[in-house]
Design a protein that fits this description.
The protein is an alpha+beta fold. It has 2 domains: about 80 residues, Alpha-Beta Plaits (2-Layer Sandwich); about 90 residues, 2-Layer Sandwich (Alpha-Beta Plaits), CATH 3.30.70. It contains 3 helices and 11 strands; from the N terminus they run βββαβαββββαβββ. The strands form 2 sheets. Strands 1, 2, 3, 4, 7, 8, 9, 10 and 11 form a 9-stranded mixed beta sheet that branches. A hairpin with a 2-residue loop joins strand 5 and strand 6. The longest helix has 9 residues. The protein is globular, with a radius of gyration of 16 Å. About 30% of the residues are buried.
Length: about 180
C-alpha cells in the first residue's frame, strides 16, 4: 500500500515545497502539507488552481505524471469570449502549438460551475463575454490548456484542475487535502 494525498492547490501557490530563486517568499506546498516523504506527481502552474496529487511512491508518481500512460486530466476553464462549436472542434482535433500538435481533447461548454471565489478574483470586463469549458487532456505539455484555448481564440481567465484519473477535488476547499491508501 502507498499513500496518496489529494490537495486542492489554491491560486498563487507553487507546486513545490520550497521557493528558490526569489527575494520574496511565495506560498508553497509546505504552507499546507506537513507530511514527510511525499512529492508532487506532476505540476500545476502557480496561476492555476485545483487537484495536485502527492505520493512517496516513485513508480506511482511516474505513472501519474508521465504522458506515456495517458492518464486523463480534467479542467474547468473560464475563457474569454463566447466559445462556439468551431473552436471546440479545433480543440477536439488537436491544436498546433509551437512545440507540436496536441493530442485531441475532450471538451464541452458547461454552465458556470459552483466554485469557491478566487483570490484575487478574475478581472470582470463588461464588454467582453466569457464562458466555461470542461476539457480533458491526456498529456501534459507546459501550460497546455491555456495555450490550447488561446490558440483557438479564447484565452483562459481561470483554470481549475478538477480531476486526474478517478481522483477529484470534490468536497475539498482550497488549501484542503485528504490522504488515501492506494
Amino acid at each position: 500500500m502507498s499513500q496518496l494525498i489529494l490537495f486542492n492547490k489554491p491560486f498563487g501557490v507553487l507546486s513545490q515545497f520550497t521557493d528558490r530563486g526569489t527575494e520574496t517568499s511565495r506560498p508553497t506546498l509546505s504552507n499546507y502539507i506537513d507530511v514527510p516523504g511525499v512529492y508532487p506527481a506532476g505540476r500545476l502552474d502557480r496561476d492555476s488552481e485545483g487537484l495536485l496529487l502527492l505520493t512517496g511512491d516513485g513508480k506511482f508518481q511516474a505513472r501519474i505524471a508521465d504522458p506515456k500512460y495517458k492518464m486523463p486530466k480534467s479542467y474547468l476553464a473560464q475563457v474569454e469570449g463566447d466559445a462556439e462549436e468551431a473552436a471546440l472542434d479545433q480543440l477536439r482535433q488537436g491544436v498546433r502549438l509551437k512545440d507540436g500538435l496536441t493530442r485531441p481533447a475532450e471538451v464541452e461548454r458547461i454552465a458556470v460551475p459552483s466554485l469557491w471565489p478566487r483570490d484575487p478574483p478574475v478581472r470582470f470586463r463588461k464588454s467582453v463575454p466569457d464562458c466555461w469549458l470542461r476539457l480533458t487532456i491526456r498529456e501534459g505539455k507546459n501550460r497546455q490548456v491555456r495555450r490550447m484555448t488561446a490558440a483557438v481564440g479564447h484565452p483562459t481567465l481561470r483554470l481549475v484542475r478538477w480531476s486526474i484519473g478517478d481522483w477529484t477535488i470534490e468536497d475539498l476547499q482550497p488549501g484542503g487535502w485528504r490522504e488515501i491508501e492506494i
